[in-house]
Design goal:
17% strand; single chain; 9 helices; 43% helix; two-stranded antiparallel ribbon; alpha+beta; 2 domains
């Protein structure tokens, strides 16, 4: 081989090596950037998934708060409704559902539900989701109102929701049940509102009195009983109706054991010019407002400040510590 041919061959080899080197570099860079784009895309997806997950968690948390507010305001609205209309509800749970979700009932709009109904809450959540490029739709499949204790109501809201990302990164569908417990303290008793046409309202306050009659040393002290009567405090009752039953004008015993009762302070009605009458069966609310007949106790010792109207039925004299301690008369006319 000539010298020139040798150098031409060497140049060709060097050119080939350089060419292969650049090809390798190009391939490496292509793979690198492709892998970088893949990693960047994965990070973007992971970030989006985390954001959507946080959105759902917030929906769960805020939903519990929303149904509590809607539930409490619904109960206030229903109490105002029966008070103003002077009628009981045919079905308290169905009425509750309608006010809770729509904010109205039987053609009546409840001002207290403005911006508080559950449907309005759903609309706000959907609008917020749209700002984050999310399609979010909810469907309430059931609303249940129950009373699991004398002083608390429980509300369950079953929701089916669908959530998807406008970029098709996330697709989420689930059934979820919200629940909240609503104390009935400071709500108004429908019995009083309806039966007295709003002249005598009574808020639910639990009595703090445990000794109604102090008979230590034959004292026959009725201070506790008088306070309980004057304040129309509430106590649990084995024979009384529950709070929800009171919305329907049901005076019978709650079979679930969530009954409550108070003593009707008839002096307040008398002060408003309402005739008290003499044929009083008992000052226990669900007996006083009902049509049942009872055996009455009257002229109870040390309760003379209300001689004409403080009467109890036989079933309650033991509960309020009168039987066996105070003198009374069962000839009440």
């Amino acid at each position: 081989m000539s010298k020139r041919g040798f150098w031409d061959s060497r140049k060709g080899f060097v050119y080939t090596v350089i060419s292969i080197f650049f090809v390798v570099i190009v391939i490496f860079l292509g793979v690198f950037y492709a892998q970088y784009d893949f990693i960047d895309s994965q990070k973007l997806k992971e970030s989006r998934v985390r954001s959507v997950n946080n959105f759902v968690k917030s929906f769960y948390y805020d939903g519990d708060r929303a149904i509590y507010i809607a539930s409490f305001r619904t109960l206030i609205g229903l109490e105002e409704y029966v008070s103003q209309k002077g009628v009981y509800l045919d079905d308290v749970e169905e009425a509750f559902k309608e006010v809770f979700y729509y904010g109205n009932f039987s053609g009546t709009n409840f001002e207290i539900m403005n911006d508080s109904s559950f449907r309005e809450y759903e609309q706000r959540v959907n609008a917020l989701a749209n700002e984050f490029n999310l399609n979010f739709s909810t469907n309430v499949t059931d609303i249940r109102l129950t009373q699991l204790s004398p002083w608390d109501l429980t509300v369950f809201v079953d929701v089916h929701f669908i959530l998807n990302d406008t970029k098709d990164i996330v697709d989420w569908e689930e059934d979820y049940t919200f629940n909240t417990t609503v104390p009935i303290f400071d709500l108004k008793d429908p019995f009083y509102s309806v039966e007295t046409l709003g002249k005598l309202t009574n808020t639910l306050r639990i009595t703090n009195i445990t000794t109604f009659v102090n008979d230590v040393g034959d004292a026959n002290d009725t201070t506790g009983l008088q306070t309980h009567l004057n304040e129309s405090f509430y106590t649990t009752s084995a024979d009384g109706p529950s709070f929800l039953m009171r919305f329907e004008g049901n005076f019978s015993t709650d079979p679930e054991g969530n009954g409550i009762e108070s003593m009707v302070n008839l002096r307040i009605l008398g002060d408003q010019g309402e005739p008290i009458g003499t044929n009083i069966k008992s000052v226990i609310d669900y007996i006083y407002f009902s049509e049942v007949n009872t055996t009455r106790w009257c002229n109870i010792q040390n309760m003379e400040f209300v001689p004409d109207w403080f009467m109890l039925d036989t079933g309650h004299v033991g509960i309020y510590q009168i039987n066996g301690t105070l003198e009374y008369s069962d000839a009440c006319g």
